[in-house]
Amino acid sequence: MQWKLDKDRPICPQLTEIVCVAIANGTLETGQKLMSVREIALQAGVNPNTVQKALENLERLGIIYSVRGSGSFVSDDKSVAKNTLERIISERTAEYFAQMKALGLDSNEIKNYVEEWNENE
Amino acid sequence: MQWKLDKDRPICPQLTEIVCVAIANGTLETGQKLMSVREIALQAGVNPNTVQKALENLERLGIIYSVRGSGSFVSDDKSVAKNTLERIISERTAEYFAQMKALGLDSNEIKNYVEEWNENE
Amino acid sequence: MQWKLDKDRPICPQLTEIVCVAIANGTLETGQKLMSVREIALQAGVNPNTVQKALENLERLGIIYSVRGSGSFVSDDKSVAKNTLERIISERTAEYFAQMKALGLDSNEIKNYVEEWNENE
Amino acid sequence: MQWKLDKDRPICPQLTEIVCVAIANGTLETGQKLMSVREIALQAGVNPNTVQKALENLERLGIIYSVRGSGSFVSDDKSVAKNTLERIISERTAEYFAQMKALGLDSNEIKNYVEEWNENE
DNA sequence: GTGGTCTAGACCACC
DNA sequence: GTGGTCTAGACCACG
Question: What's this model's pTM, rounded to 2 decimal places?
């Protein structure tokens, strides 16, 4: 589990997403204990408070649960994480399309642009 | 010329982009006078200071020029606007790909996702 | 609007509740602007971050909305605040009853105890 | 003797209270031996350290006494347990009233609310 | 050692 | 001036 962060975007939601991805793809299993807040903060090179906030988000969503004094654990129901992830992907794509259209491209042009982008990579 | 703003994103760069698009696609022609700061602010429903800052950006980039007491005008060379627009499109697409990959999709999955999105719209 | 805080309980939820009460009882009206984060922090004698967190909670619940650079405002629909308030009252009462029963009192004893308490006040 | 715990509140004081209640209502008699720390921990499903700390509290209050190597026993004077219990009940009720008033209810409304609650149960 | 809460103070973009 | 985000570091109760 690696904490690859994009410094141009808010860190907190990125942490949230990374955990969601890890749960969705099986890197983190049901009931598994996450690293401690402090440990994540150390590995990711960010402030423990930022990590704390991200875990609070995940707990509020029901994706993990925290036990005082013992740590945070992956919730029994992984579907919430998966749904959240899909929702995020969908939202981001919607935003992307909205922005591209605001920049003057129509649906086909966007599709073509994405395909070209894919080839040049 | 309409000022369709996404309230979830910073206003100022959106205004900048809208003018770029208008110039690139011919809605605004070389030498044409833009609406006044106040008028734009009124139509777009935003703070005049924000409009002012957006126009300053455009002038700094050489996309428009301001004549004291008479207003702002589209620069003679529309290529700057076009290049700026392309650069923005490219940057946004790069960001989109980076985010989707962070969310666990590979290049092909992104391409397919975009195509499906296109169809369902 | 006064910020009377019980120092034996977490401050953040107390702030949340105070705003809910103010909205529910009409001290704060629909669309009305709240004091700034910094001002509330000053008046209440707490840290601005704590206030910020409380307002984030309220925004997440749809009770207020924040406009970047201009402040926080009471949401159009005051019913959410009222419902939230009722829910809190109900939850607290449920907790109180559960605790009293764990302490060996039955429903009638609790009722009598509350009535006596009322008289002696 | 059952260890019914509310997971939303600190475990340690709950254990303390349960023993107080058991002594006050006669489930535990003067001089009677309590279960061992390990046994209580097992039955209650909590950490033995937590049980140990709760028993230390009770001993400090004079409600039980420990004999090295043989266990903990109910103190000769049960009145301390009873008084402690009453004090806790009183404190909780005071807290409850304070919170309800902070939530906008006056004494009469609280009384009525409690009575209705009683009926609907 | 753990999470939970709070304080203090900084920086940013936006209005 | 505003809210939004982050850092730094402290204290507490719980396990």
Answer: 0.89
